[in-house]
Amino acid sequence: MRGAACRIRQDSCTIRQDFASAAPNTSTMKSDADTQELLARLTAQFLRRTPSDGETTTIVPGLTLMRLSGPTVVQRGMLKPSFCVVAQGEKIGQAGADTTIRYSAGQFLASSINMPVAGQVLHASKARPYLAAVFELCPADVLSVLADAKIQVDATAPCCPATFVGTADARLLDVVLRSVSSLDDEREARFFAPLLRRELIYRLVTGPSAFAVAQSALQSRPDDGVGRAVEWIKTHFAQPLVIDELAKHVNMSTSSLHHKFKATVMMGPLQYQKRLRLEEARRLLLSGLADATRAAFDVGYESPSQFIREYRRLFGTSPMRDVKRMRDGARTAHLG
């Protein structure tokens, strides 16, 4: 399909995938200029509100600002359901088993489930630090906006990844800018935060990445299908996992569960359980609540030696050396 680009459109209040010819126009050029202006204003706001590297927790629950003044080492962990928009700098990482993700200024990383990821800042310096805003969002928030706006999702569409990169258009960046700017006044920030969050979601489900945002929220619902399977594994990760029993629990066939789970989570159920176990073991070790043997048993391993092998395979070194490395101050970044 030469000269065509995948596009999202909203027809008859239904979000669907479509293909249309890509033809530049003056409105697109104006939009690009608006986007660059908004990114510059966002950068100025971030620099003023992040006096040092790391995470800056704001007075608005669920809104965190990030600043990093140089490239970082790879950081592994679980990405919470969230929306992270970059104002300056670039990151590269991996979501699921082996899906590469790369995003920079004017782009965002979104996830509708707790997703195993790895990431590192590529381009950043003291003069031009990596700057980003992270908004916690859950599928219920997105589904609520879809319902209130009377926007339907094409139920016949195939599953799409629950974690993905998108482009932030000018309307979306404007909401982010107003959210950050409101932090000057605590009462104003707290009052407008719920309204701005809903507007943010509305811009996401009516913008260039509408299909991915809406579809990932729909298929990640904790009360149905893959979303229900994800929730069960998160709650019972230390227990033995039998795929046939999990499929019955979520009212799916075993083959359908495998196919849809991998399409959504970008890894199989057993891989997802293993990542949850190893991430929790790492948390226990780092907090000093357990040694390697105790952590192995606590997260469901029957063999400490198997635990150590799988821990080394994921994190690149033994559990105790990994903890020492992290405590010694290895430079890391937020997963968003």
UniProtKB/TrEMBL annotation:
Q: Name one Pfam family in it.
A: HTH_18
Which residues belong to any copy of the HTH araC/xylS-type domain?
227-325
Q: Please list the coiled coil stretches.
A: none
* Annotated protein name in UniProt: Transcriptional regulator, AraC family
- InterPro entries given for it? Homeodomain-like_sf, HTH_AraC, Tscrpt_reg_HTH_AraC_N
* Organism of origin: Stigmatella aurantiaca (strain DW4/3-1)
Q: Which UniProt keywords apply?
A: Transcription, Transcription regulation
Q: Which GO terms describe its molecular function?
A: DNA-binding transcription factor activity; sequence-specific DNA binding
